[in-house]
Amino acid sequence: MPFPHATVDLLGGAPVNLTDFAAGTDGDPAWSPDGTLIVFHSIREFRNDLYVMNADGSAQTLIENGADDDPSPNWKAKAPA
After folding, report:
1. Which of 40, 44, 21, 42 is nearest to 31 (CA)?
2. Which residues lie below 8 Å from residue 3, measured CB to CB, with a gap of 6+?
């Protein structure tokens, strides 16, 4: 069962919800290598889409409609120049 994405302060803080479970079903989060972004699936309006957001949950942005072909989104390292 998917749940809203949350972060927890490792020094004993309370969980902080990053996504609104009522807005859809969110799952498969993956942190960017630098820790500033999170990519995740979200079923909103009966469609499995791919979103990215800031690490604090702000600026949730749709990046791919109908992301059924990408079951576990992840980040790729940049090739050296």
Report:
1. 40
2. 21, 26
Give the DSSP letter of residue 41: E
**18: Cβ–Cβ under 8 A, 6 or more apart, which residues?**
4, 5, 6, 7, 38, 53, 56, 57
More confident of the two residues 1 and 24: 24
Residues belonging to the chain: 81
Grouping H, G, I as helix, E, B as strand and the rest as coil, residue 14 is: coil
pTM comes to: 0.74
Boundaries of every domain in the chain: 6-69
Which long-range contacts (C-beta less than 8 Å, at least 24 apart) are formed by 4-10?
5/29, 5/38, 5/40, 5/57, 7/55
pLDDT digits (tens, 9 = 90+) for 35-76: 899 998 888 777 788 899 999 889 999 988 775 666 677 787
